[in-house]
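Quick start: read one record
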Amino acid sequence: MNSYRIPEMARKYMDYDMIRQHTDLPVFPEFRTHLLYAFLSRHSSLSGYSELFSLVTSLVQIGMDTHDLVSITNNAKETKAARSRQLKVLAGDYFSSRFYYLLSHAGQIELIGILSNAICEVNRKKMNLYQKMRQLNLTADDYIKLSVEIRAQLYLAFACLMEESLRHAWPEVLGLFTRCEVLLLEIGRSESAQQYRDSWGYWHILHQASKEEGKHVQAEDPDYAKLRSIWLKYKITPQLYQMLDSCMKQLQDKLQTLESKELAKELQLIGEPFARYLSTPKALEEI
């Protein structure tokens, strides 16, 4: 079995001077991609395609994530900002197009259709999320649920291709890993006053806080000191740490039920960053 090297392979398609100099790219979907590779590598007939399938899926995900970074409005007049916006659009299109090219050259036409349908479903879920946000009709729990579904959908499409013995485990393991990933990102956002908008904490406070507090959280130019006091009052960061701890325990319990102990051990290693994060002094204090 080949060692996992998808990030290095993807860098060939992502590492361009013009992109690095003029815009930022989203974080590589490491957990989901490594997870997909681990499951596919144990397929009796598809193991030889585990690298290709994992690579193209990561490129599609990077393409969609790059498009998500494009601002909704195009008011940027300054040359550098305008160029960054244009490159995000072009880079996202380029990354997404690579999966057509690579799969067609490998004769994997069926997977092109599977991933194309998954992309449509991701976009549908995103529109559902954005509509709920605009209407302020979104609970904090719904925010996490939809965020996990959107991130996992592309990878979930491989359920029909999994080895029979792993087919039922794939959606749940993927969902738990992705939930841990989302919660880890939300913890980071909760600790930065500049990233609170439309975060888990934002939606939690809107449904739990007083009208005055809710108006302050929704303000275009809030008082960040006041905002921080509201965050502390409703224990946003501690709650997220506790949610991550609970999710990690569910994941560990699930991995113990897998028939393949070798796979369970590999998945434990993939999830090690979550465990290390929860073992830091700050995390232990919050849990």
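The mean pLDDT is 89.
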